[in-house]
Design goal:
The protein is an alpha+beta fold. The chain has two domains: 2-86, no CATH class; 111-188. Helices cover 59% and strands 16% of the residues. Strands 4-3-2-1-5 form a five-stranded antiparallel beta sheet. Helix 1 crosses helix 2 and helix 2 packs across helix 3. The chain is flat.
């Protein structure tokens, strides 16, 4: 029984590493291949030859250009208008919003809005979950509850973009020393990986 459990756990740990790795490679390869197929005829016409790997360079330049555009005032408006258009398409908006929030949470800790990693007794006494404190304060809730409360986002594993927000009395929250990034890695790995 222990051998089967060990094999299962090892396989699941490998799967947790494999899936995001393959997904990342697939997305990057798709972008590279897409740009490469667009640029191949143009390069052949302009230069007379095709340069292998130019799609990779073009992909990196496109990512950098999008980042630069998103940081400019005019660019922010263009990106916001594009996002509003995308958010009007029923199925696409769900996929886009999920991927965007996941990217923000995993790439930029500041964008995620998480302030710290905490331990909270949930869903009952004696059981603990990892959560993330948020900077937001819900004034109406605080007015109705006498003791000071904290908003804690409890993510689901392995997808930290979904979960629930619970409001917990401040003295029942146990702060942890791990960073938000380490906490997210722990959630995404299903508890297998901390750093």
């Amino acid at each position: 029984m222990k051998l089967l459990q060990s094999i299962r756990n090892t396989f699941l740990a490998g799967l947790i590493v494999f899936i995001p790795l393959v997904a990342t490679v697939y997305v990057l390869w798709f972008g590279f291949d897409f740009l490469d197929s667009l640029l191949r005829p143009v390069l052949k016409r302009v230069l007379g030859v095709y340069l292998p790997g130019f799609g990779l360079v073009a992909t990196l330049l496109l990512i950098f250009a999008l980042g630069a555009l998103a940081r400019l005032t005019l660019g922010k408006r263009v990106v916001a208008a594009l996002e509003q258009a995308i958010m009007r398409i029923p199925l696409v908006k769900t996929v886009y919003a999920t991927v965007k929030h996941a990217s923000e949470a995993l790439i930029d800790n500041k964008a995620s809005g998480f302030k710290g990693v905490v331990l909270v007794e949930y869903p009952r006494r004696g059981c603990y979950v990892i959560g993330f404190t948020t900077g937001a304060n819900i004034e109406e809730v605080q007015e109705k509850i006498k003791e000071k409360v904290i908003n804690v986002f409890i993510p689901t594993a392995p997808n930290p973009t979904s979960g629930m927000v619970i409001i917990v009395p401040e003295d029942e929250v146990i702060p942890l020393k791990m960073t938000v990034e380490e906490g997210l890695k722990l959630i995404v790995s299903g508890g297998f990986v901390r750093k």
